[in-house]
Each structure stands twice: as structure tokens, then as C-alpha cells.
Design a protein that fits this description.
Length: 346
Amino acid sequence: MRLFVFYALLRGTCCTADISCKNDAGNPVDWFVIYKLPQLKTESVGSGLDYMYLDSSVKTWQMSGFLVNNSNGALGSTLKHLYEGEGYKSNRSAYILYNDAPPLLEDTHYYGHTKGVLLFNKSQGLWLTHSVPHFPPFPEDGFAWPSSGRRYGQMLLCVTYKYQQIPRIAQQLLYYSPRVYNCSLPVVFQSDLINLVTLCKGSKISWVAEKNLENLTSASGEKFLSFAKSHFWVDDIYTGWAAQALQVDLLTETWQRREHELPSNCSLPKHTLNIKRIKLPGPVLFYSYFDHSKWCVSKSYKSQWTCLGDLNREVSQAWKGGGLICSKNPVIYQAFRHAVSWYIDC
């Protein structure tokens, strides 16, 4: 049965090297952001597989020399532990793959609108959150990018964490109510990670609190703030929670499908304003309709908040579980704030 692969004890071992996010050179990094560009009709980009890359060392968006489906790029290198040498069969590492639109399986409306990978050993691991339907593939199928992932822009955030942070992440995932379609959690991890045991078994979660804020610290000491909301908290996560909790006006970029989007909102003390056009170096210019990413930045340059997440500003998604991961890192903020080309005020 492919839906849930739950390993108690498995044969096979894997290298003991720490699991980490990797850059385009295949070297470990504390965090990275990938902005997969939409299919654009320009001379320089247009394949639907080109991506901009950002981490603390490059300081601003850089066009990658790889396509996002290349196993030697940042994304492929980061997930090599899962896809090469049958590392997914190791009893010294664990993983969980979740996506409300999983590969090879039907979409469902019963889970949170959230997508990601949690991959770790007893030393450290990574949490990759993203906006890509049908990704990543089942480990035994090898690394690949879905054919459906070309048309729209997509966002991927990878952060490396020490093992002590994994239980906190697992708690946040419980609020998300993710659709877990594949996982491995050997017994050595189970006493620490009861929430992941529940999710991997596919147990129906009858009740969880409305929402939770969690402070997370990366392996190199970078601070992140995790917002996690369950389907019991019915509101737009950007307007009703993030803007008010961070005490900032937010410029929000989410998939603005016609007749599905929420308008810019100034009804509460802190406002949420819809971004309509994105400009990246190159120059690369595209409208929000062609971007499946979900992110927001503080309107004021003084506060420097950036959040990347799961949910669109859409009426139906007020009833969905999901979250945001927020940072005050000036490199991340400047990259995203300068990408705002046009937004709609109230």
C-alpha cells in the first residue's frame, strides 16, 4: 500500500552525515528560498523550470544555472538523502511527505492546504515548505518535478534545524492537518515524536486547538516564527492573525484566481494589501495570477517581516489548516520587498 509507508525497523543503513538544506553547489546551507518562475515568453526565461535562488551568502536573488528539475540543483541536492542510495530505507533517519494534492493520488478537501517535507536524523534535519502540487514524488520513484508545476510561479523554503527543534515542528504540523502520503518513522524516533506517529498512521485527528505560534531556531541560530492554524480557526490567516500579531501592514502575494480572491482589507488596525505584479532581477515581470506562491512582506521598511506559507487569500481557505513561517532577516526582507512591483490599496 503506497499511501502510508510506516517503518518500525528496516534493513539498510545510510551515511551518518548531517541532513541539511543544500545550495546549487551541493554545499550545506542554513536556509534557502527558491522562487520557481512561471512559464514566461521571454528570451532568457520561459521554460517554466527556471528559478531564482536566495540564501544568506548571495544576499539577493540570483538566477540559477540549473533548472528546478535537475537533481544537481539546490532542490535535488537537498533531497538526495531521500532519493539516492535508497536512503529512505534507513533506520537511522526519518521523513514525512505531505501535500493536499499528492502525486499519483486524488486531491481531497478534507486536509489542510499545506505542502512540505520533513527529513531528519538524530542530529539534525530540514523542513522544506512549498507551494507545488504533486511534489515531491514517492522516494522509490526518484527525484522529479511534476509536469503540472511549470505554468505557475512556485515558492520553496528550506531551513536546517537541529533535532531538538523537530518536536516543535511536529506540533505545528498537527495543527495543519496535513495529507501525509508517505513517511518513515523508525522506532528510535517515536517516543520523541508522538505527533508524527499520529500523522504517519493516518489517524483521524478529531480535535486540535485553533492556532499556535512557535519560535523556531535554525541550526545556525537564525530565528523563525511559525504560525499554525487549524480548520477550527475560521479566518484569513494574513488579515485576522499575522498582520495583527506582527503589528504591521502586510503586502500579500497569493494565487489571485478570478472570483476566488479576497480584496485588500483595511477593516482591522493592521491592513493586508494584495500584490498584483512581481518584479525580479533580469528583469523578470509577471502578474499575481500566474504565481501560485504564497508570501507576504511588511509594507514598512522599518519592521522587515517576511512570511512564506501555505494559504491563499481566498474565502474557502479560511476553513483550512495551514501556516506561515516568518523571518526578520534583512536579506530575505529586501529580496521580497523589492519584488513588489504593484499592489492594491484599500
